[in-house]
Structure formats: C-alpha cells, structure tokens
Design a protein that fits this description.
The protein has three domains: 437 residues, no CATH class; 55 residues, no CATH class; 32 residues, no CATH class. Helix content is 83%, strand content 0%. It has 20 helices and no strands. It is globular and about 65 Å long.
C-alpha cells in the first residue's frame, strides 16, 4: 500500500516538473521569437509588407507541417506511455520504429508538394506571388520536422519531456540567430529587396530545424543503451503485425492531427481571405500592409500566453493516458482540474493586460511600425478562450476523446470563415473582421470541448474559486497597473513607463492570487518547490497552519 502511494507521489511530482520544464522552454522560445519578429518588423525594407510575404508563406508551410507531423508527438506520446505504464517497453519501442517509417514517408510527400507547388500556391491561392521563394526555402524543413516529431513523441511518452523542451529551445535559438544573420546578408547583397529578405528569413527556419533534428538524433544514440536494457526487461509484450500497429498509430494520430490542422487553418483562413477581401476597397500594397500587421505583430503577441500554457496540454496527454491505463481516474481528474485552473490564471491577466496596454506594447516593441493597437485589443479577447481550449483538448486526447477537439475546432472554423468573408469586405470593418471571426471561433471551440469534457470525467472545480476570484485578481491588477502607467508616463519615457507598469501588474496579480487564496495547500504542493513555498506563506500568515482554503 505504501509503495503504491509513493509511486503516485512520484508521478504527480514528475507531471509538474515536466510542466515547469516545458514552461521555461516555451518562455525562452517565445521571447526569442519576439526578438526576431521585432528585428524583422523594424528592419528597413522589411516592415509590415515583409511580414505579409513571410507570414503568408509560413502559414502554408505550417498547414502542410501540421498534416504530416504536428499531431504526431501527442499521438506517439499517448501510445508509448500506455505501453510503458504496463511494463511493455518492447511494444513501446516497436510503435516508435514503425511511426518513424510511416511519418517519414508522409513528411517526404509533403515536402515535395510544397516544393513543386510553390508557384501555384503563392499566385493562385495566396494571391501574393512574392511568397513563392519563401515556400521553396521552407519545403525541406517539413521532412525533418516530421521525423523530429516522432522522436519527441517517443521521449514524451517515456516521461523524458525535457528532451523535447531542449530541442525546441535550441531550434529557436538557432532560428533567431540565423534569421538576423541571413536577412542581414541578403539585405546587404540585394539592396534591401523585401521579397528576398522574406525568403531568407524562412530559409533560417529550415536551417534551424536541421540543427534541432541533429540534436535529437544524437540524444537518441546516447540514450539507446538504456532503451535496450528496458526492452530486455520488458513484460506483457504481445507482438502485433506491422499493419495493425500502423492502423493503431494512424487511428490516434489522425484525429489529433486534424485538431492541429484546425488550429493552423485559423491562420490560413486569414492568409487567404484578408488580402483578397481588403483589395475590394484598398490598394494591393495597403491590403498587404494590413495583413502584415495582423500576422506579424498581433498574432505574435496574442499567441504568447498559448506558449506558456502548452506545457499543461503537452504534459497532460501522457500523464492522463498513463493514469487511465492503470485505472487511476481520480489522479487524472485532479490533474485536469488543476491544469484548467492554471490556464484560467494565465489567460485572464494576459487578455486584460493586452487590451489595456495594446498601444504602449506596440510602441515598446515595434517603434518603427506602431500601427495595430485597436486590432490587438480586439484580438486579445481570444486569449482566454484559446488557452482554455488548448488545455481541455490535451485532456480530451489523454482520455481517449481524440476526435472531439477536431470536431469542435472544425465547427468554430467554418463559422470564422463565413464571418471573415462577410465582414472583411465591409470598408468600415476590414481587417477587424478577421479578429471578430477568431473570437467567435475560439468561444465556440472552447464551449463545445468543455461540454464533452465534463461529460467524460468529474472535475474538482468551483465557480467562485475558478472564475470569480481570478476575475477579482485580474481587475485589481488592471486598475492598479494602468493607474501607475498614467501617473509616471509624463515623468519618464513612455517605453520605460510601460515596462514598469507591466512589472507592477505581475507583482500585484501574484499578491492578489495569494491574498485571495485561489490555490489551496494541496495545489501549492503540486507546484515544483511548492512545499517550501507553502512554509513561507504559512510563516508570513497568508495560509494558516493545518488549514485548507476553500
């Protein structure tokens, strides 16, 4: 009995450690991503027009990448974790080898489609002919990302999530450095040719993918000896035919991939409809500039919270799959409830903060291209719903409801497409129609997924704790930080005032969470180093000893 308890404790600690590692990794990745976005947007000869060319090509690449690989890590992670949970390391490794072959073929086909079809896609579909070079530059990356995704899924399923985190961080480090180097070289040698600089920026993506793939391959070779030992000691192994394993992999990966495709299509709908719709009443140059603001600045900023939150969505899949395989439904329920609560605590302040400080943030990050504050304010509403949907979808995939995220996302996307087509062509609305479409899309996808989740598993959540208290903390943060900003912006520079106001917002929000006791003692202990943190909070009198907050 004591042994069982120890195992559960280890599992819980391992889950939160995985979340922490991924969160730190995603923080570094997004900050670096912001660095090269700031560089590109402020770069002479690039700006919003360069962002339009760069982003339109990148979104097509992202769609093909999604088809070939994006659902793969979670699918492989789920299947491998289920095998490992019952001691079948040999079966887990067989799934990995077959997945490597299967998705290698799919990735190669996707690479060839993008390479051969670059001209048609850029001219006929995107109506941005300049994007052809960016598509060609990105095409080799699809094959290598696909193989890398299988490796990441395998390591995630074996609870080696830090490998995924390190490989993604390395990839972004290389991408940031190479983007600056390649764009500078192309800019100098072509007299600031926007089209070629955009292609150069995407070539940097391909080169960084190759380097990240090299890291994963090297790690696998080093770790292979440990895997061999575990395979030798494997129990409960039942050999399955190649055809049956491929079917099983595709049965799990296809719905997860479809769900990821829906997410990618959200941006593809914008890349196809925004310029096309705006050209009804704007010049082509103006239309591209508007799309560049949406894709280059606004989308970059509103996806920042998603990057922090994805740690829970990623860690939930193998964790819940493993718990369900052992018949431990209670642990799965607690992890899902805690993850949703944390997603709310991440999403709400980011939504409100982005709405309040939209203009100051743009002036801080993009001093040479500050347009887009109203578009950012409207788009910020999507943050809370997309963050929640991300976590809920990870939970549903872990529970085996793998088709639900794809279906709910598809419904939301169909409605977004109709809203985009209808609103963007109206002169008084224009590009804001795309933001409105995204809001409606995310609300629908979240609501439908949540309904399915609560029918699938009982959640340990209370309305006051999970909604009312976080709202109060967010309102306090918003009022105090904005007042501080107004107070000091006339005394010091606007950019420094913005930085100070954001730091104040983080401090006030954190203190509000503690004073309102949104997290109870058990939840604080789930956080890495939570036991030490709880002792400090008890010492200062925020949490009374021996009492649980309600």
């Amino acid at each position: 009995m004591g042994q069982t308890k120890r195992k559960k404790g280890t599992r819980k600690e391992g889950f939160m450690q995985s979340v922490l590692v991924l969160m730190i990794s995603q923080l570094v990745i997004k900050l670096l991503g912001l660095v090269y976005k700031i560089y590109l947007t402020n770069k002479e000869g690039f700006g919003d027009t360069g962002n339009a060319i760069y982003s339109s090509g990148y979104q097509i690449y992202a769609l093909l990448l999604t088809v070939s690989s994006i659902g793969v890590p979670n699918a492989i992670s789920k299947l491998v974790s289920e095998k490992v949970a019952i001691g079948d390391s040999k079966g887990a490794h067989r799934i990995f080898k077959i997945a490597l072959l299967t998705f290698g073929i799919i990735g190669f086909i996707a690479t060839m489609v993008l390479f051969v079809g670059a001209g048609y896609i850029s001219s006929a579909i995107l109506q941005i002919p300049e994007a052809e070079m960016t598509l060609v530059a990105l095409s080799p990356a699809i094959f290598f990302v696909t193989i890398a995704s299988v490796l990441r899924g395998y390591f995630n399923g074996r609870e080696k999530i830090s490998v995924t985190a390190k490989s993604q961080t390395l990839e972004q480090v290389f991408k940031t450095l190479l983007t600056v180097i390649v764009v500078e070289i192309v800019g100098i040698s072509t007299n600031l040719n926007t089209t070629l600089m955009s292609a150069g920026a995407n070539l940097a993506t391909t080169l960084s993918v190759l380097l990240s793939f090299g890291y994963l391959t090297l790690y696998y070779k080093i770790y292979k000896r440990n895997i061999a030992m575990e395979i030798k000691n494997s129990v409960n192994y039942k050999r399955e035919s190649l055809k049956k394993v491929v079917k099983k992999i595709l049965f799990v990966s296809t719905p997860i991939t479809l769900s990821a495709i829906m997410s990618t299509l959200n941006k593809n709908i914008d890349s196809i409809t925004v310029v096309r719709g705006l050209k009804k009443f704007l010049t082509e140059a103006q239309a591209k500039s508007q799309y560049g603001i949406l894709s280059g600045k606004v989308d970059t900023l509103i996806t920042l919270p998603l990057s922090f939150n994805i740690a829970f969505a990623t860690a939930l899949v193998p964790s819940i799959s493993s718990s369900m395989a052992r018949g431990d439904k209670e642990s799965a329920s607690k992890r899902i409830s805690f993850s949703i609560l944390v997603s709310i605590l991440i999403g709400l302040p980011c939504t409100v903060g982005m709405m309040i400080f939209a203009r100051p943030i743009l002036e801080l990050l993009f001093p040479n291209a500050t347009n887009g504050s109203l578009l950012l304010q409207i788009s910020a509403i999507t943050i809370i719903f997309s963050v929640l949907a991300q976590t809920i979808n990870g939970a549903l995939q872990g529970l085996g409801e793998i088709m639900t995220p794809a279906i709910t996302s598809a419904i939301g996307l169909i409605i977004k497409l109709m809203i985009n087509i209808w609103l963007i062509e109206i002169p008084g609305i224009g590009v804001y129609g795309a933001a409105i479409g995204s809001i409606v899309n995310n609300i629908i996808a979240f609501a439908l997924s949540y309904i399915v989740l609560v029918r699938s598993i009982k959640l340990h959540m209370k309305f006051i704790k999970c909604v009312i208290k976080p709202l109060i903390a967010t309102i306090i943060m918003g009022i105090c930080s904005y007042y501080i900003y107004l107070l000091i912006q006339g005394i010091i520079s606007t950019r420094i005032a913005t930085i100070i106001a954001i730091i104040v917002a983080i401090i006030i929000y954190t203190l509000s969470l503690l004073v309102l006791k949104i997290l109870d003692k058990e939840e604080i202990k789930m956080i890495p180093y939570g036991t030490k943190l709880l002792k400090i909070l008890e010492t200062v009198g925020i949490y009374g000893k021996g009492k649980h907050c309600k």
